[in-house]
């Protein structure tokens, strides 16, 4: 793509969703191999699955490089202990939003790291390098023999046979090494590009504050640049099928075993430069992430920068960014947690996810999908999407038991937590579900924890009124349709419309009549309330 056309595309796409394929194995590899010990909290795979994290990431990601994409993914899965240099980062985001020339020039540089091979750069400071075998001295000896015999041919023609014999032996060692070489044909050329891009971006005054010590890391990598350029040549020749040059070069490399000598020499040097490589990698990742945040904010109508509080949650006109034309809601949470009631599809679970993902985005990229949002720094745990684990012979209920047990353990460790639950213990019978649910929800809401839980069990609202604020979602049932307004309302749900919805969907009248009769009888006997309360 010509540069002018590329610039036009970058300008037009600022604020727009990406139109790319997402390979989450590659995108998440940096996160999976990073210790993240310094993080306040690491989002578990379970919580990510519950909150549709991959879909959220595809919406948030506006990066221009594979390095930035990996860096953003890692950032979103790690809640930091404190928001460092927040004012400086917001200044940069604002600058990149307003200064189109700066942004586009930066994006043009970052785009050089947008090939799939750039995903492998992180392996150069996270993975284990191939080690030279103990018999590697044989390769040095054969290389020296080839060189010496070639130089001696003008003085003694018989040395040609020594050179030729050594050449035949070298073929085996040369192709043995190909397996090792191919592991680095993607990552090392991309490291050279990474260092080159970083050197250019570091010259920009606005970016120097990201890492003032970066220049020394760039220089360290430059020291091994000449040797590493061999990999760039190798990769280009393979991709362009330049047969003649390739053939000549291959003969030279076989004769003197250049590939194994250069490869293991470079790997030994790079093994001692992991810290410097990671510094350059994070510098590029941070810049790309800041541009991505600027683009995200450009593309949405309502967002806010959250305020970190000590003991309350406040969300004004908060919405779920992945739901088209999502209805926003407002809520304040102080001393009590939140218990939601409502029928299926009324919006309970979506609202719980809305709170969770807004806190994640607020604590990681300082952006919430709301008019105003305030909350403490919380660790986030969830039990929303639970399935049978057939491979390990675990039922739905047993999986839920283990998930909630982990929550209970974390609830009493003195740390601030956010617990998100949907239909607690729905895998068991009514009496035990309500009994266990009440006990668990009381335990989770202790200390400085916040709980957002949904339930169909109206009985729980009576048992938890001292510990939970009650809210509900409701629908309007007309003659032949059901309308949902998705608005959060105070108090518990009072209307029950399940049987009426069956009737609207033309269930047989004998079923409807029997269901109504049984419902009336159960209400008369007090099964819905009194008997259950007594048994708990």
TrEMBL record:
The keyword Amino-acid biosynthesis does not apply. SMART domains: MUTSac. The keyword Isomerase does not apply. InterPro entries: DNA_mismatch_repair_MutS_C, MutS, P-loop_NTPase. One of its GO terms (molecular function) is mismatched DNA binding. Keywords: ATP-binding, DNA-binding, Membrane, Nucleotide-binding, Transmembrane, Transmembrane helix. Residues 335-520 form the DNA mismatch repair proteins mutS family domain. Coiled coil: none annotated. Pfam families: MutS_V. One of its GO terms (biological process) is mismatch repair. GO terms for cellular component: cytosol. The chain crosses the membrane at residues 135-153, 159-176, 243-267. This is DNA mismatch repair protein MutS. The lineage of its organism: Bacteria, Pseudomonadati, Bacteroidota, Bacteroidia, Marinilabiliales.
């Amino acid at each position: 793509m010509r540069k002018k056309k590329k610039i036009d595309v970058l300008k037009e796409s600022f604020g727009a969703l990406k139109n790319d394929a997402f390979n989450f194995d590659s995108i998440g590899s940096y996160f999976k191999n990073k210790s993240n010990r310094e993080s306040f909290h690491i989002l578990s795979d379970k919580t990510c699955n519950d909150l549709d994290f991959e879909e959220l990431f595809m919406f948030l990601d506006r990066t221009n490089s594979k390095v930035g994409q990996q860096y953003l993914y890692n950032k979103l899965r790690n809640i930091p202990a404190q928001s460092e240099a927040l004012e400086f980062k917001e200044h940069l985001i604002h600058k990149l939003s307003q200064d189109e020339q700066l942004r586009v020039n930066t994006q043009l540089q970052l785009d050089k790291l947008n090939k799939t091979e750039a995903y492998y750069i992180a392996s150069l400071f996270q993975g284990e390098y191939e080690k030279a075998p103990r018999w590697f001295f044989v390769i040095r000896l054969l290389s020296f023999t080839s060189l010496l015999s070639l130089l001696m041919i003008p003085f003694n023609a018989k040395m040609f046979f020594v050179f030729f014999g050594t050449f035949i032996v070298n073929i085996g060692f040369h192709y043995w090494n190909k397996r090792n070489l191919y592991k680095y044909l993607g990552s090392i050329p991309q490291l050279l590009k990474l260092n080159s891009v970083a050197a250019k971006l570091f010259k920009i005054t606005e970016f120097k504050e990201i890492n003032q010590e970066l220049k020394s890391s760039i220089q360290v990598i430059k020291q091994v640049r000449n040797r590493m350029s061999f990999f760039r040549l190798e990769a280009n020749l393979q991709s362009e099928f330049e047969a003649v040059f390739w053939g000549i070069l291959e003969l030279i490399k076989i004769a003197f075993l250049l590939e194994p000598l250069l490869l293991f020499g470079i790997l030994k040097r790079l093994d001692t430069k992991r810290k410097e490589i990671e510094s350059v990698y994070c510098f590029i990742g941070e810049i790309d992430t800041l541009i991505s945040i600027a683009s995200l904010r450009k593309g949405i109508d309502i967002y806010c920068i959250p305020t970190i509080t000590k003991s309350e949650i406040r969300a004004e006109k908060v919405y779920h960014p992945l739901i088209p034309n999502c209805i926003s809601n407002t809520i304040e949470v102080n001393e009590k947690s939140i218990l939601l009631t409502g029928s299926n599809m009324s919006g309970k679970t979506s609202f719980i996810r809305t709170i969770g993902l807004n806190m994640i985005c607020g604590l990681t990229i300082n952006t919430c999908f709301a008019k105003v949002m305030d909350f403490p720094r919380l660790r986030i745990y969830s039990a929303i999407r639970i399935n049978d684990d057939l491979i390990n012979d675990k039922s739905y209920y047993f999986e839920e038991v283990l998930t909630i047990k982990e929550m209970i353990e974390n609830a009493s460790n003195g740390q601030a937590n956010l617990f998100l639950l949907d239909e607690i213990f729905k895998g068991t019978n009514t009496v035990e579900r309500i009994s266990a649910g009440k006990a668990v929800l009381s335990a989770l809401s202790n200390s400085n924890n916040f709980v957002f839980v949904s339930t169909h069990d109206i009985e729980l609202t009576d048992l938890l009124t001292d510990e939970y604020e009650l809210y509900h979602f409701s629908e309007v049932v007309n003659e032949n349709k059901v309308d949902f307004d998705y608005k959060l309302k105070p108090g518990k749900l009072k209307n029950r419309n399940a049987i009426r919805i069956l009737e609207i969907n033309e269930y047989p009248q004998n079923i409807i009549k029997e269901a109504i009769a049984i419902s009336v009888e159960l209400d008369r006997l007090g099964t819905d309330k009194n008997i259950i309360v007594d048994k708990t």
